[in-house]
Records
---
Amino acid sequence: MANPARLEAVLFDFGGVFLDSPFAAVREFGERAGIPDDGVLELVFGRYDADTDHPWHRLERGEIDFLSARREIIDLSTAAGHRVDLVEAFATLVRAGIRAEMVAVAREVRAAGLKSAIVTNNVREFGESWRAMLPLDELFDAVVDSHEIGLRKPDPRIYEHALGLLGGVAPASAVFLDDFEGNVAAAERLGMQGILVDHDDWPRAIDRLRSLVSRAAGAHA
Ligand SMILES: [Mg+2]
């Protein structure tokens, strides 16, 4: 077996990794509203593994504001025979807490001498609330927020941007964690190692990351 490249950096998604999954929150909303699973996800998030003109994608790229996206998605969903209001769709997510164990492993990443970053598809209007949930300065060398740079995962340029901010880490020396398969696949296509954070079994992702980090810490020693 070829020697794997030495691990130098860990890139974390935020929603669905440190916080509960936004997809699960929207699915629960769909159940309450009687909208089928795939239908409600597509109405809110569009085709999430593509980068399109869906209002949610434009919102994540910082091209429109939250209220415009909310209005457009109400119109889109009404035309499809449902009524999807983003404020209601995310209601359960807002109540969810941070996963302390994920914060613990992020601390271990830095203690092992590795670099770390957040790479989040996010929304200007959520900025203050999500940033207040984590000690960002303590845990991360860089925070990449889609709406600030006009790029959203799975666009490969957002991963390259993050690796650049970390001092030009090679993709093969980086691990990326995300709860959305399409985002993990895009990182893997660039040569990064991907870890999918499963909504129902997220501690497994922590175990995998922890074993990579302890191996890297051993190699550094
Ligand atoms: Mg996510």
---
Amino acid sequence: MRSKAIVCFLFSGLIFCLSLSSLLADEIYTDEIYAEKCALCHGEDGKGTPTGIDFGAKDFTDAAWQATRTDDDFVNSITNGNPDNSNYLPFGDMLSEEEIKAMVPCVRAFAQ
Ligand code: HEC
């Protein structure tokens, strides 16, 4: 009787862990994406690294510049890059649509 209770306990623990890990898997870690894929050009502080600035990256902390760009502009540029600037690589193949959308508030946060 006791061992049945233990098996039952372990089983519900397993189910709990499985559902928890699938919940966590859906979470998007924008800080990690930024550090891994964006900071190289845009810098940890959003102002742009020397390489990024050389490529034509703007200062993300510049609120006046941010105001000239809509969220859709950002999603579009992150997804497709800039056809007029071959230094700006498209991320559409590297990040999912949800991840790209999640990066917009992350970029906006630098000017707040
Ligand atoms: C290889 C360097 C490089 C990397 C890596 C990079 N960017 Fe950029 N980014 C640029 C350059 C250069 C521009 C300016 C493009 C232009 O307007 O000509 C830019 C522009 C932008 C803009 C402004 C777009 C607009 O519509 O004005 C956003 C937002 C942006 N990047 C976000 C990101 C995010 C998010 C990542 C990481 C997923 C990233 N960038 C990674 C170089 C880079």
---
Amino acid sequence: MHSVPPEFQLNNDGLTLLWSSQQAVTYPWFWLRDHGEDQDSLDAATLQRKVDTFAVPHDIKANAVQWHGEILQLQWSDGSTSHISLQRLKQIAGLAPESEALPDADRRYYWLADNLPDPYPSFAYTELIASEMAVWQWLSAIVRYGFAVVTDVPSSEAATQTLAERIAPAQQTIFGIYWPLSAELKDHGDTAYSTQFLAPHTDGTYYHDAAGLQMFNCLEFDGKGGESVVVDGFAIAEHMRLKTPDLYQILTEISVPGHYLEPGVHLYAERPVFRLDRHGQLAQISFNNYDRAPFLLAAERMQAFYKAYAEFNRHAINQANWLKIPLRPGMALIFDNWRCLHGRMGYVGKRFFYGCYHGHADFESRLRVLAQTHAGAALGAVMSGYR
Ligand SMILES: [Fe+2]
């Protein structure tokens, strides 16, 4: 599709493109030189920068500028030339979706008590193993809802790995790459390895790169209770942004440390409960009161933090906001640990899960690559339990 290149004006500060009568965007000269897309400025295959940013004169300006179709050509005051595409100029100004954006991120379905996904997104194991399209729809559903269930999964460690590797290699943590989870295991002192109720939380607040996805395959269940609980943390954040913006703001600002200790291990990391991206959009929820490490702020700020933190918790522990999923052999649950909180009801009996994590960057990478081929396909074609 062809776009008509906008008119422009050369200013002291940079080049102004008149996208419409309402919208003019100025691109600083130095920025334009630094973002050349010609073969001397950028490697076309890897998109790695070739221009030596630090050798560009700080006061560089263009002497001449012209459109060649959808390419803007620039002649520079230091004698060099470069070009940049209309598409890049549009994307960077927010006038076209960035190619780096997470596919379907603008179609996220935020859910709380009054709009829980019912039935929840669910996919058949055999489809996911057989079809790339099915994997695309599966991951796309995880972007939209924050989680999905997989049915008919063989109750084995090998099948768990086979399923996980349809996304990417799993992420290694102190728990290993693939890990068994059961109260009968005493390998780790963590509360997850018990039968008690676990309040909704995110995992890995003590890792700089907290797990992106988390997956549990239920290998065995013979008991009562133990339902998995999923809560949409992004929906809580959005609710707070609208209803209690001052409290929302505090949770975007104050870094909260998390730690994990066991013999030979001392992990520690910190970030705000609501981490925003450079556009001010929510990127990650980090909330684990069990693993919170001590920190102290000035009295007034500390009090403000506790108030905001308690407000978040009030929504997180509100059972009306919970999706309770009783996992049984054959079922695997996968969720975005940067968006959804998870918990577990207390139980009696035997419950044995096998699980793993994926790095968020690896999950996103798989999505972007799948989107190149499959984006636009109707969601639902292979979903077995979705309305
Ligand atoms: Fe957990």
---
Amino acid sequence: MAAVETMVRVGKAAHGRGVFAKRAIRKGTLVGLVQGKVIDDAEYYSDYCIDLGGTLSLEPKTPFCYLNHCCEPNCQLLLTEKRNKDGSLAPSTVHVKTLRGIKLGEELTIDYAWDSVKPLRCLCGAASCRGWIVAVNHVFDKSTAY
Ligand SMILES: [Zn+2]
């Protein structure tokens, strides 16, 4: 796997910052490992943490903390379950994998698929945009949304 730095950079996106391809990336490529702080707290919540199962969450570091949501994403998060030597569950590893070919300069996006009670309006602009940053089948009360 090539170094993450050779594939992507953090740049200015339509809203805040985003992750952009520094070169063309083929479909099915593991762009990189999402590194960050693993937090073992069932109550823990932040805007960008990734659920690793059980009580574990991953608070990603740059560059992948800047991955933006799109309802037609070109990447996905690939979780690999890990076990400790004693068989207990260890924190999963998370990679960013491309769902299709990505052009030089294109922004990398994922589908956050949040089960949020206070969803954000989605401004991704995709033809199939769901209008809110939530999981496809997620039902929520629009009056509680931001
Ligand atoms: Zn959208």
